[in-house]
Amino acid sequence: MDIPTLRLGEFKIFWLNGGHFRLDGGTMFGAVPKVLWEKKCKADAGNTIPMCNDVLLVKTPEHTILIDTGIGNKLSSKLLSIFQVTSPWSVTDDLSTLGISREDIDMVLLTHCDFDHAGGIVMHNKQGEEELSFPNAVHYIQQKEWEDVEQPNRRAQSTYWPENFSLLKKEGKLKIITGDIDVCTGIKLRYTGGHTRGHQLVEMHSGGETLVHLGDLYPTHAHTNPLWIMAYDNFPLEVIDRKEEYFKYYQQQDSWFSFYHDPVVKACKLDKKGKCNLFHTAV
Predict the structure, then answer these.
(1) What topology does CATH give the domain 5-214?
(2) In DSSP terms, which residues pair with 184 in a beta bridge?
């Protein structure tokens, strides 16, 4: 299948395969009754729904940037089975298809550090040794998020895996930030909190157009209702507040909203009633 692509002014955005898996549908929709969410996401007999981990490649006139890194290629056979991985991580292969090497990536913007977003920071090479997947890239992480990587609470211990971060400091490729910053012309990181303590969004502007990537605040287009949030969210009321705030703010800019976990819809726009009225799909 062709790599999904969206033109945003002078930027080109690609959705790379960061690994597909299946997750429990109830967990993905929290308190929302199954009779409602299954109208949008059909579950199998085990109550799981298909999910992807779409790493966004952003090509600007000056930079080659990734947003998040997918599940990586380090999962054991046991973990591949537990998470029902249906399509392995192929970010480096997708880059090669586009004529880009992993050494060409100069920034990695991490919305947060759960394994399905940060698992591709460190990869196994052909010899089975660990190395940075994108050795020349500066990796941007919020201060609060990095604090939880280094001293994870009981919940974070199950998803902030040390092997995903072991080389960042050693190789000098970690950039810890606090709050909102411009990382380059047209691309801004904004601290959000909510899903995790140090979660952040990515805002892009080029040629009078806007796209915002809300990470796990808005994982799929089925989560457009601000009250439809995940059981994975650490601070659920914050997630609802942030969604209401950002939906209103970015809708007024006629912004695209891009998705990380949606297997079909890659981006959408919202109308004034907060409904998806324009879709950019994988087909």
Answers:
(1) Metallo-beta-lactamase; Chain A (3.60.15)
(2) 187
